[in-house]
From TrEMBL:
Listed transmembrane segments: 46-68, 129-149, 155-174
Organism of origin: Geodermatophilus siccatus
Upper taxonomic lineage: Bacteria, Bacillati, Actinomycetota, Actinomycetes, Geodermatophilales
The name this protein goes by in its record: ATP-binding cassette, subfamily C
GO BP terms in the entry: cell redox homeostasis; glutathione transmembrane transport
Gene Ontology terms for molecular function: ABC-type transporter activity; ATP binding; ATP hydrolysis activity
PROSITE patterns: ABC_TM1F (PS50929), ABC_TRANSPORTER_1 (PS00211), ABC_TRANSPORTER_2 (PS50893)
Signal peptide extent: none
InterPro entries to which the protein is assigned, alphabetical: AAA+_ATPase, ABC1_TM_dom, ABC1_TM_sf, ABC_CydC/D, ABC_transporter-like_ATP-bd, ABC_transporter-like_CS, P-loop_NTPase, Type_1_exporter
Length: 540
């Protein structure tokens, strides 16, 4: 929250406060001069010229109020949008290095909700907190000072009532509102995450219990969201009642106190209506504070959730002084151990594995033996707890992350295919690959059929849903083949393929001059060009 306030502060925010305070004072002055004008007119002056200054005042303050309000809104929104843009930029800067390992526990919908809804909520820091608070102090102080010139007692009452309406009532409401705001933010995030999970996994939900469990979870989240909204609405009703009632009290007090002065002859009659209506108008100074206090809980909760996201630490970091990238592309794991946070057993324990320059190594072993974890270590998605992983003889931890990843291409077990064209998806491997190369690599992996339908530049559907699992795996493999990396890390690239296709893909990989480390359960398909390493074998 402090970070956001620091971003929001500055001359622009100060200008918004000054414009807001002048708007409030113009409104109060408009009411005061109108009151004085009506009283003056009721006294039937011999010439209207006597009323000219008041008529001019009414016109001036009427126009100024509208113009000042417009300018204040313009500046406030400008500052708000700048804050949101900067927070979102900084957040994305911090999130990017977290991928992939440090984000594995985060739900997609939850992340989306934080990056979008919570950051949007931070717009409120300027428009609903900073500017209203500044306006309340500046305009409230000025109104009390001006009122004291006419009636010090009325000024005292005005000061007390401004504090009641601006501080006491909202503070009490905010205490009650904080819990509701936190509950609402959590419920909103749950609804977003549950909806996204439901939509993404629709076929699985439907083929399980027909979606009943997922719908029940969503229903519960919606109920929590509704209850939180209801609590917030109750609170708004109470604060609205106070917002209407307290200025009325101020008006009555001013009429009473200034009326007594007029009766005693110490104050002119024109000032009675002017002062009473001016006091009524002055309450606009704290008008924004009620909303500010009730928004504070939500804004603080959003700021806290955004901060918590920004505070996540990446699983791997760049070394302070990276060593130059080595020329060789041989990979070695030396006595490597990896235990995932919170796991009872190590996923990889004391592993020695050498994949020399240009070698073709196939990792095999039972499900859960740690094959994908070895690829994650080789890619430096994670660092080993013991031992070291080297590329061309240099510890990966001593190399710049970007450099390491430019040398390694990875095809995941469940690869991501993005909504877009086939060409767009393939060019994630190499952005400047010409169409002819895309066509050739598609033929290499047995995907030439896709050139006819949907075509190189045809739409693959949301998240590539037009492709079968085997086609998705080969699109990912084709990306890796296209890349300029000199080490290919491939996680079960032939898992969904028939025997002939699998043999064809493995042959293409064995002919590739680059270093290849692949994970497979199908060792029967491998010929003599491959060295098979079984992670379950007692003496590897
Ligand atoms: N991100 C993670 N957090 C915690 N535990 C994990 C994580 N990824 C994998 N594991 C655990 O580490 C162990 C090794 O997993 P890994 O995915 O490396 O196995 P695998 O040999 O590739 O399995 P499969 O053949 O089924 O793909 C498993 O027990 C798995 O549950």
């Amino acid at each position: 929250m402090r970070e956001v306030l620091a971003l929001a502060g500055g001359p622009r925010a100060a200008l918004a406060v000054v414009l807001g305070a002048l708007t409030v004072l113009s409104g109060a002055a408009l009411l005061a001069t109108s009151g004085a004008l009506i009283t003056g007119a009721a006294q039937r002056p011999s010439t209207l010229l006597v009323l000219m200054p008041l008529i001019t005042g009414v016109r001036l303050f009427g126009v100024a109020r509208a113009a000042l309000r417009y300018a204040e809104r313009l500046v406030t929104h400008d500052v708000s949008l700048r804050v949101v843009a900067r927070v979102r930029g900084r957040l994305l800067e911090r999130l990017t290095p977290l991928a992939p390992a440090a984000l594995t526990g985060a739900r997609g919908g939850e992340l989306l909700s934080r990056v979008r809804t919570d950051v949007d909520e931070l717009q409120g820091v300027v428009a609903r907190l900073l500017v209203p608070a500044g306006v309340a102090v500046l305009a409230g102080g000025a109104a009390v000072g001006l009122t004291a010139l006419v009636s010090p007692a009325t000024a005292g009452v005005l000061a007390v009532l401004l504090l009641v309406l601006g501080v006491a009532v909202p503070a009490a409401a905010a205490r009650a509102g904080r819990r509701a705001a936190v509950a609402a933010a959590l419920a909103d995030a749950d609804v977003a995450a549950d909806t996204l999970d439901l939509v993404r996994g629709l076929p699985d939900h439907l083929s399980g219990d027909g979606g009943a469990t997922a719908l029940r979870a969503l229903d519960e989240a919606l109920l929590r969201q509704e209850e939180a909204e209801r609590a917030r609405a109750r609170l708004t009703a109470v604060t609205t009642a106070c917002r209407e009632g307290v200025p009325g009290l101020g008006l009555v007090a001013a009429l009473w106190l200034v009326g007594a002065d007029v009766a005693a002859g110490t104050t002119g009659p024109l000032l009675l209506a002017a002062c009473a209506l001016g006091v009524l108008g002055a309450f606009e100074a704290v008008g924004g504070l009620g909303a500010a206090w009730s928004a504070a809980g939500g804004v603080r909760a959003a700021a806290e959730r955004v901060r918590a996201l920004g505070a996540l630490r990446p699983a791997v970091t760049d070394p302070e002084a990276p060593r130059p990238l080595p020329a060789g592309s041989g990979l070695r794991l030396e006595g490597v151990g990896l235990r995932y946070p919170g796991a009872a057993e190590a996923a990889v324990a004391g592993l020695d594995l050498a994949v020399p320059d240009g070698a073709k190594v196939a990792l095999t072993g039972r499900s859960g033996a740690g094959k994908s974890s070895v690829l994650a270590l080789a890619l430096r998605a994670r660092d080993p707890d013991t031992g070291r992983v080297t590329l061309g003889g240099t510890d990966l931890r001593d190399l710049a992350l970007d450099g390491v990843r430019s040398r390694l291409a990875w095809s995941a077990q469940a690869p991501q295919v993005l909504g877009g064209t086939l060409a767009g998806n393939l060019r994630l491997g190499r952005h400047d690959a010409p169409d002819e190369e895309l066509t050739a690599v598609l033929a290499d992996v047995g995907l030439a059929g896709l050139l006819a339908d949907p075509g190189l530049h045809g739409w693959l559907g949301e998240a590539g849903e037009r492709l079968s699992a085997g086609e998705r795996a080969r699109v990912s493999l084709a990306r890796a083949l296209l890349s300029r990396a000199d080490v290919l890390l491939l996680d079960e690239p032939t898992a969904h393929l028939d025997t002939a296709l699998s043999a064809r893909v493995l042959d293409r990989l064995a002919r590739d001059p680059r270093t290849v480390l692949l994970v497979t359960h199908d060792t029967a398909a491998l010929d003599a060009r491959w060295r098979v390493v079984d992670l379950d074998a007692p003496h590897r």
